[in-house]
Design goal:
CATH class of the largest domain: Alpha Beta
Strand content: 15-25%
Shape: globular
Radius of gyration: 22 Å
CATH topology of the largest domain: Rossmann fold
Largest sheet: 10 strands, mixed
CATH architecture of the largest domain: 3-Layer(aba) Sandwich
Distance between the termini: 21 Å
Mean pLDDT: 93
Strand order of the largest sheet: 3-4-2-1-5-6-7-10-9-8
């Protein structure tokens, strides 16, 4: 079997915190260890000048990392990737902050990735590029004469063409992306939106639902919804519910129903609207019957929109607690710091309502984790944004429009009052969707689509 070469913005080089790596990173590492692999990308460090890649090896996988200069970090990462592409892809153009030099730096860093990766490639490598930071990379690799099978997976949403056009420079980036052999998306809607944008903006045609034609090449399109190790997470949640953090939380509730939100502190997560919905729940439900715990880990604090969001949430949380709190009780508990994943699993096991209401999300694995964490005998209810990719699979959740605070509040009321029989039925339907899927299956399915002959003998670890 050929070697897998994964390219991503950040590289999860093994360390003392390796156990905290995300499920998809763990899945990719498993595949790479099985057949040999190279993981290439940014080290996470900012240096005075650009240098050559640092290369380390562990368990058959090579980790090649580049430092960014301060100018590259400001233009490529903070500027164009997260100041333009992230808000555009999530349908929030009012948060865009464009500078032409940032676009130039973005393309230059993508080319530098290609310049340093090409000498490390072998003729039969299968290259898998990840996410919006590296839209230019497939084109840059082809300019170097690379002919290896190359796939690209977009972890975030892709909007309709009219929304895409607001990002300056996007036409050229789409053309670069069409140099890949396989483009993967979280949902069919994301795939179709991309295809429409590629036709309208980049001159592609669509001879089949799963294929685009551009520049004399055929580019395959696929839908690969990201998955979790549901049974493993369920066992973790059951065990963690008995540990001290969850038991302290349980005792503090004093019989109240727990509503739980777990997110990065990000403008796309709809947190101000979510808190407003909870405020309306409190206004309609007198007495101390429910407590909301919102975990919101800080993210991208060097981006102005994120700093403004934190200030807004602090004000919202303070207003709710000052209006509805008592000397001995606060209805809202807000933690603006990350919590260990295992601890959160125990919290999910205790929650009567999981509140996952992003304005837009590629998938949102927290929704799947909440389902996996539940006690089948007495499960909680998932309130889920219809604009999260997970909504296409978890149709038994209470699906809501996150922009409609009153509608979200009504769904929260329904979830809090839902009888056990209905809760069990809704949970079972969602569990049946995720129970036998896995991150490994997700990765193998993508690679099989990229190079069908290359994985003919690899056993699947679950449907993706």
């Amino acid at each position: 079997m050929s070697r897998i070469v994964v390219v991503s913005n950040r590289v999860p080089v093994p360390s003392g915190n390796a156990g905290q790596a995300g499920g998809l990173a763990v899945a990719l590492l498993g595949l790479m260890e099985r057949r040999g692999g190279l993981w290439f990308g940014w080290s996470g460090a900012v240096s005075d000048r650009a240098g050559s890649p640092a290369l380390t090896h562990r368990r058959g996988v090579g980790y090649a990392t580049l430092d960014l200069t301060e100018a590259e970090h400001r233009g490529y990462y903070t500027g164009y990737s997260n100041g333009v592409l992230w808000p555009m892809l999530h349908g929030l153009p009012h948060l865009m902050a464009f500078r032409r030099q940032d676009l130039e730096t973005y393309r230059r860093v993508n080319r530098r990735f290609a310049d340093n990766l090409v000498p490390m490639l072998r003729p039969d490598d299968r290259i898998w590029v990840h996410d919006y930071h590296l839209l230019s990379l497939p084109g840059a690799l082809r300019e170097h004469g690379v002919e290896n099978a190359t796939g690209f997976f977009l972890h975030v949403p892709f909007p309709a063409p009219d929304a895409v056009t607001v990002a300056p420079g996007i036409r050229r980036l789409l053309q670069d992306l069409l140099a890949a052999d396989l483009l993967g998306f979280q949902t069919a809607a994301d795939r179709d939106n991309f295809a429409a944008a590629a036709i309208e903006l980049a001159g592609a045609s669509r001879p089949a639902a799963d294929r685009l034609a551009h520049g004399g090449r055929s580019v395959h399109l696929g839908v690969f919804p990201a998955e979790i190790a549901a049974r493993e997470f369920a066992a973790t949640a059951e065990a963690q519910a008995k540990e001290e953090p969850a038991q302290l939380l349980r005792r503090s509730l004093n019989g109240q129903a727990l509503l739980l939100g777990v997110d990065r502190l990000d403008p796309t997560k709809g947190l101000p609207d979510r808190l407003e919905a909870f405020r309306r729940v409190l206004a309609r439900r007198p007495g101390r019957t429910a407590t909301f715990l919102q975990v919101a880990a800080p993210s991208r604090e060097d981006v102005a929109a994120y700093r403004r969001l934190r200030n807004e949430l602090n004000a919202c949380a303070g207003a709710i607690n000052s209006e509805y709190g008592e000397p001995h009780w606060l209805p809202l508990r807000m933690l603006a710091r990350a919590q260990p994943r295992d601890t959160v699993a125990g919290f999910m096991r205790l929650a009567r309502v999981g509140v996952v209401t992003p304005l837009r999300d590629g998938m949102n694995l927290v929704a799947k984790e909440f389902i996996a964490a539940q006690d089948p005998r007495d499960p909680g209810v998932l309130v889920l944004s219809r604009f999260a990719g997970a909504a296409a699979q978890l149709t038994s959740a209470l699906l809501v429009n996150p922009h409609d605070a009153e509608g979200v509040a009504e769904a929260l009321h329904m979830a809090l009052d839902m009888p056990l029989e209905e809760r069990r039925a809704r949970w079972q339907a969602a569990w049946d969707v995720i129970a036998d899927a896995s991150p490994e299956g997700w990765g193998e399915t993508f690679l099989r689509s990229l190079a069908p002959e290359d994985l003919a003998g690899v056993p699947t670890a679950g449907a993706a």
